[in-house]
Amino acid sequence: MTGPADPAIDGLPCMLMRGGTSKGAYFLAEDLPPDRESVADLMLRVMGSPDARQIDGLGGAHPLTSKVAIVSRSQEPGVDVDYRFLQVGVDTSVVADAQTCGNLLAGVGPFAVERGLVDCGEERTSVVIRLVNTGDTATATFPTRGGRVVYDGEQSIDGVPGTAAPVEIEMGGDPAPLLPTGHAVDVIEDHRATLVDCGMPVVMLDAAEFGLTGDEEPAELEANTELSARIEAIRLHAGPLMGLGDVAAETVPKMILVSPPRHGGAVAVRAFIPHRVHSSIGVLMAASVAAGVRIPSAVGSSFAEVSADRRVPLEHPSGVFEALVEVEERPGVGFVASYSANLRTARKIFDGLVFPRPRR
């Protein structure tokens, strides 16, 4: 009599994809255990965590390459698929789901087509996606041909070499208030902070208040242990203010240092995610910052060079991320993002079976 399948022996269906400036393992929910604890344990073994090198798994030894997308058909009316994101710790045993990932979101639509969860359009396919972690919805539109996803194209994004086919992502649903505390500025640990959430909880801080120019390289900022401790102290205070509770073991909120632009953008950013510094900036982090600097009196709004249209180009260590955001103030609600969208790319890297290590 044959026993239940053992992923370490029989393998687990998996697709490795680059989504935006991140890379992650994509799974169908039906191929995974039904309970969260078993999934978390399995993903640590898939990624090779905890280990700074992740030498015994798929992880790439950095939070940006230690990510998981779990996708299934949605039961929600008007929604095609559900997408649950997991951030797998690199040198820790933490598997967090308090946040979502807008970069891996770029690969969810193509993955859904690859796995037959949605029908493929003749030239373009649009997939309505529910972001399970946050409850938001998004529509991803990308080129298809002959019943297959087209990955080759001329779209480039900073932080990724070469070009690929564009993936247009528009956030949907009824917009929630951008300011969880209702204030454009809160003072935390003697620093002005703007707490804003446009799909990703972030805390915007003025780099100058920390004696920084804002154009430092990520490695330089990570090596500054005093700076990291100060920012972490602010993050721990900001979590409860944003309704996130105790965030000591969480990866949200993200901490963003903003400074005046130098290369024609709206502002320059350095993003702590939260303990490493992003080599660029996450999609939903960018949306939150872009919305934040459009709010009068918010940190960064005084020096942000924001145009009258939806474009908010954010200068980051690898180039520029152009977020498309409109902000309006609604009576009785406060500031909301009436429109939020971005342009990403995605690519299938491999499709097959992954063999997680048998035990941690």
From TrEMBL:
The UniProt entry, under InterPro entries, shows: OMA_tautomer-like (IPR047687), PrpF-like (IPR007400)
Q: Which UniProt keywords apply?
A: Isomerase
Gene3D superfamilies from the entry?
Diaminopimelate Epimerase, Chain A, domain 1
What molecular functions are annotated in GO for this chain? isomerase activity
Give the UniProt family note: Belongs to the PrpF family.
Q: Which NCBIfam families match?
A: OMA_tautomer (NF033377)
**The name this protein goes by in its record:** 4-oxalomesaconate tautomerase
Q: Which organism is it from?
A: Brevibacterium celere
